[in-house]
Every structure is written in C-alpha cells, then in structure tokens.
Amino acid sequence: MDVDAVLFDLDGTLCTADQSGEQLYFGAFDRAGVEPFGRPEALWEALDYPPPPGGWRASLIAAFAKVAAAHGRTVDAEALAAGFQEVADPGAVSFRPGAREALASAREVGPVGLVTNGPERRQGPKLSTLGLEGRFDVTVFAGDAVERKPHPAPFRRALDALGVDASRAAYVGNSLEYDVAGAAAAGLVSVWCPDVDGTEPDGYRPDHVIEHVGDLGSVLRRGDRP
C-alpha cells in the first residue's frame, strides 16, 4: 500500500473495553435502585449512534425507556441513564492485541492520526490509560462536532491538519458502516480489521481486509494500491 500517512479509529480497533456489558447494564439498575429486567443486548440495540444532539445521556434515557416499554415496565429512565454513566469508567480499556505493532508500523510510513466518533471527555481517559495521550500527529474527536463518521468531514479535518491528500492516506477501523464507508467517502484507502471473527463485509467494499490489527504492517509494506 503506497501511502504517506495512516489514521486510526480507537474503540474496537486500537482498544477494547475492560468492563463487560453485564457490569454496565446491571450496575445501572443497582445504582438507580431498580429491580433489573431485560438484557444488555437490548439496550445496545436501542441506543442511537451517533448520539442525538442531547448527547449520550439523552440516548441512554431513550434506550432505557424503549427497553422498559418492551417489558411492560414503567421506570425512571433518567435515573437508569445516570446510574449507567456512574458505573461506566471511560478509562477502563486495554490495547487490542497487535495494536502497538500496528501503530509502530504506521509510524514507519509517516504521520499517524486518530479519528474517533467519541467526544474528548470520553476518549481522553482512554488515551491516557493506553499511554497514547499526545502521541498522535493529529487527533479528531468527532463527537465534539456536528458531523461524525461516516461523514467525510472528520477525516478531512485530520488530513488538512497533516497536509496530506486523501488519496495518500489510509484509515484503519473495525466498523464497516462508520470506518470503511466514511473513509471511502473522504477518498482515503480503507483498511478493515473486524473485531468479530467470521464477519463478512456484506455490501461494503474495504480496500484491504486484515484479520488482526497487528497485520497492518504486512499491508503497508506492500507497494501496491488497492
């Protein structure tokens, strides 16, 4: 792959959450003093992503209300959302296996950037935990802007800051809908590293597919374009 810069997604690409869905979901009920019902998966499906103008709190309130309605329950959705946020530790993350190697390989190519849909207040603690604070040549927290991935604007902000043309940059991410589609819309070379084994592109066409993020180096060392 013949590029001059590499941009990365954060969640699911470079890092994984240390807190389980069960800890977050049932912890929210415990903090709110509400008898638990339902399963975490239903909450994730009900969440709006990217979050609405009201932010994650608004999205959580609406999601808990939807889950409650599905179970014929009347609850204080605001208390549950507040409990969820009290339990959630944004800094409780670990490197995804191979992520350090991927970053090192990207650094051999040129500037390295981060483009994440999360806001700085939520993503900053993750970067601190991982020792990546201030380690990127450009960092775009799209969650603090109106336009988020897959809109091309966050990618263009990063490229403008680096002074690199889109056709000379690669974006590495785990989401087809937000990372691959967004990179393509902005004109970057897309590198997809699924965080679920056996996942198929299904309608999306990433330029490169790597089984593990640590395999990025082998793709970057190729001199070919997709």
Key traits:
9 helices, two-stranded antiparallel sheet, about 230 residues, about 15% strand, 2 domains, alpha/beta, about 40% helix, six-stranded parallel beta sheet, 8 strands
Beta-strand fraction estimate:
5-15%
**What is the SS-derived class?**
alpha/beta
Q: What is the CATH class of the largest domain?
A: Alpha Beta
CATH fold assignment of the largest domain: Rossmann fold
Sketch the major β-sheet: 6 strands, parallel
Q: How many β strands by DSSP? A: 8
Side by side, the strands of the main sheet go 5-4-1-6-7-8
The DSSP helix count reads: 9
Mean pLDDT: 92
CATH architecture of the largest domain: 3-Layer(aba) Sandwich
Number of domains: 2
By oligomeric state, this entry counts as single chain
Query: Globular, elongated, flat, extended or rod-shaped: what is the shape?
Result: elongated
Name of the CATH homologous superfamily of the largest domain: HAD superfamily/HAD-like
Measured distance between first and last alpha carbons: 7 Å
Query: Whole-number radius of gyration?
Result: 18 Å
Which bin fits the share of residues in helices?
40-55%
